Amino acid sequence: GSAVQRLWRGRVSAGMLSPRLQRAMKNYLSDNKHHVAYKGQRRLGQSPKELLCELKVHARLWTLDGSQPPFSSLGWDQLVPPRTLEQLYQGQDQTGIRTCAVVTSAGAILHSGLGKEIDSHDAVLRFNAAPTEGFEKDVGNKTTIRIINSQILANPKHQFKSSSLYKNVTLVAWDPAPYIVNLHKWYDSPDYNLFGPYVERRRLQPQQPFYVLHPSYVWRLWDVIQGNTQESIQPNPPSSGFIGILLMMALCEQVHVYEYIPSIRQTDLCHYYEHYYDQACTLGAYHPLLFEKSLIQRLNMGPKGDLKRKGRVTLPGLSSIDC
Ligand code: C5P
């Protein structure tokens, strides 16, 4: 069947990718830019419950808290928000947010008419420079948290300091470090320099909750994907989409994800907000997207019809899982 049908069924393999994407994948495997040396096992056929426990126990949400060098001697314990991300969204009753929506930036969300449904969630997560203005009917207009990669902070074209996309929301930034994480090396040579803009924003807007993911968190998520995939996956960090889904599973009781696993609207249009076509955006070249999506498909608790019609996956929050 087609790539989408295989994703709906959860039967994916690199061999189903186009020759161009297979070549890209091989090159990333041989480059191994982040020096990935996976030491874990590859467990096949874990149940959804076992998978959820693995994610909960081995990939606990972790943001920089300024307690580790070099950040500790740079005063980051006073710079980061006083409460952790989990504390920020834990009510008096310690339950977290009830319902959450994760809205990917895929072109397939165009003409979905899902805006109202998305906005009916208690919290909505969006990615990078994805706008709502002009697309409300399909993507809604509520944004609670925005995950941004380091290019958003470092590349002037995104106007991080002035754009309204990054105001009045909780921000969570990330940047890949080498697989064996050394925070000194990461601080000296991040992929894109997020540290300067982060420090500046914290000083100018101390009331805005703004976190940086610990680079180890990102690699522990990668480990779970590789550990549950038969083939060797790209030795590069998971996409922002996968990171965002797991972040919301840590904060919310229930998570609906939109157009991560594509619906019948599937298209090569990369983003709903840009005229750029590339199937790599949906199936992956740099990121191990195909395998991330297969893992999320295995965890889907919603009906198959939701997947096909809405591109919607239903996931449980991790706090409710007893391990
Ligand atoms: O491109 P960007 O990373 O900003 O998009 C946010 C996330 O949405 C991606 O990391 C990916 O997980 C998801 N996405 C997708 N298919 C697309 C475009 C984005 O699954 N065509």
Strand order, biggest sheet? 5-4-3-2-1-6-7
Let me know the largest β-sheet. 7 strands, mixed
**Rg calculated over all Cα atoms:** 19 Å
Give the helix level as a range of percent: 25-40%
String of helices and strands = HHHHHEHEHEHEHHEHHEHHHE
Any ligands, ions or cofactors bound here, and which?
cytidine-5'-monophosphate
Structural class: alpha/beta
| Overall pLDDT | 97
Residue windows where pLDDT falls under 50 for at least 5 positions: none
Number of strands: 7
| Shape, principal axes of CA atoms | globular
Termini distance?
Answer: 36 Å
Approximate strand percentage: 5-15%
Provide a count of the helices. Answer: 15
What would your notes on this structure say?
- The longest helix is centred in the N-terminal third of the chain and has 13 residues, at 19-31.
- The protein is an alpha/beta fold and 323 residues long.
- It has a seven-stranded mixed sheet, with helices on both faces.
- It is built from 15 helices and seven strands.
- Bound molecules: cytidine-5'-monophosphate.
- Cytidine-5'-monophosphate is lined by residues 104-107, 127-128, 239-241, 260, 270-271, 281-282.
